[in-house]
Design goal:
Elements: H1 12-41, H2 55-67, H3 71-76, H4 79-88
Helix pairs in contact: 1-2
């Protein structure tokens, strides 16, 4: 049957590529979770628990995102600062 789509398992090279991509996504997600954990708690870098990636890794990615000008990336890591700034700039009633 020529019109039938092949199963995902028929292409082992694709499986390994997808698995590697998923692993990278998981790693980056843990890094973002670590940044959010520190930001929400107002904690210094040294207080990062061992369940997260190493502090040097988290700090590297945070500074990379911040310095690259990706405001949306760092803004999502600072929800409290964003809401406080919005409150400060509101006109008094």
């Amino acid at each position: 049957m020529s019109g039938v789509a092949r199963n995902f398992d028929d292409r082992p090279e694709k499986n390994s590529e997808v698995a590697a991509l998923h692993e990278e996504i998981r790693k980056l997600r843990k890094i973002i979770e670590a940044v959010l954990y520190l930001q929400r708690g107002g904690l210094p870098w040294r207080m990062l628990p061992p369940c997260f990636p190493p502090v040097s890794t988290v700090r590297y990615w945070f500074y990379l995102w911040r310095d690259s000008g990706r405001r949306s990336t760092t803004a999502c890591c600072r929800p409290r600062a964003k809401s406080k700034a919005a409150k400060l700039h509101q006109a008094p009633e």
